[in-house]
Design brief:
Distance between the termini: 47 Å
Strand content: over 45%
Number of helices: 3
Structural class: mainly beta
Number of strands: 18
């Protein structure tokens, strides 16, 4: 499998982002809804399916409880599943992947670090004489999507417990176009400062991309909502592994998707 990953890498060097795209984000209580896993850098289109054996904790989480996704399968370039919405309130769809290994040639690893805003890792490698060494990395991905059924209940701001996650501190579904949403990045349950955040959103049939800068000392970033649409946040936390027998670095990818700008609440 490692050989396959390396063979596919040049076409997807910074393009193996993973995120959830529900059929709809504002749903009726008790509705059965389809959700898609989109994999790749062609937001909002999936470039390749995520293998089912790599997925863990694929579920819907609400104040009233949680339930696993149903009927999960691969359909072409998309992995899909179904969930049943809670009777009412905000709720999350969650998943994570098991760690995977990848090794990149030095120049490709440096390009990846630059493209993903991981300049601190690049500087460390340069300062410690590793800039000319291959990048050996374990990576895992943690995806969330925020939805609402009926009337919101404020639980959008409740952390899910994923290793890395974005937590909105204002309701995207009550945010009008032109507003902003404060969002906190948590890593192992603690505010994560200094991590670059990318925003992409689909509105009016057009895809927009914006670099939001780094999270502040409280792990906060302000997310603009120029117009009504489907929004995706993305960042990566990378750290040096204590046990480097198999890899030198470990990265933790996270995305959060939601609709905003419609002020539907």
């Amino acid at each position: 499998m490692r050989t396959l990953l390396l063979a596919l890498l040049p076409a997807a060097l910074c393009g193996h982002d993973l995120y959830l795209k529900p059929e709809k984000c504002v749903v009726a209580g008790g509705a059965r809804v389809r959700v898609e896993y989109h994999n790749g850098d062609s937001f909002p289109v999936s470039q390749a399916p995520v293998r089912l054996e790599r997925l863990r904790d694929a579920k819907r989480v609400a104040a009233a409880g949680e339930a696993p996704f149903e009927d999960m399968r691969v359909e072409g370039k998309t992995t899909v599943g179904w969930f049943t919405a809670p009777p009412a309130g905000h709720f999350y769809l969650l998943s994570r992947t098991i760690p995977n290994f990848i090794e990149l040639a030095p120049e490709k690893f440096e390009k990846y670090l630059k493209q993903e805003g991981l300049s601190a890792i690049s500087r460390w490698r340069s300062q410690h004489g590793e800039a000319g060494k291959p990048g050996r990395e374990f990576y895992s991905k943690y995806v969330k999507s925020l939805l609402v059924a009926g009337r919101g209940d404020g639980s959008y701001a409740r952390p899910s417990g994923l290793t890395i996650e974005f937590v909105p501190l204002a309701d995207p579904y009550a945010t009008a176009a032109g507003g902003k949403i404060p969002v906190q990045l948590l890593f192992r349950g603690q505010p994560a400062a200094g991590h670059e955040v990318e925003l992409r959103y689909l509105a009016g049939g057009q895809v927009h991309r914006e670099h939001l800068g780094a999270t502040d000392a409280r792990g906060m970033v302000s997310v603009p909502v120029p117009e009504a649409g489907f929004y995706k946040l993305h960042t990566i936390v990378m750290e040096r592994r204590a046990d480097r027998s198999q890899a030198d670095w470990e990265s933790f990818w996270t995305t959060l998707t939601f609709e905003a700008g419609g002020a539907q609440r």
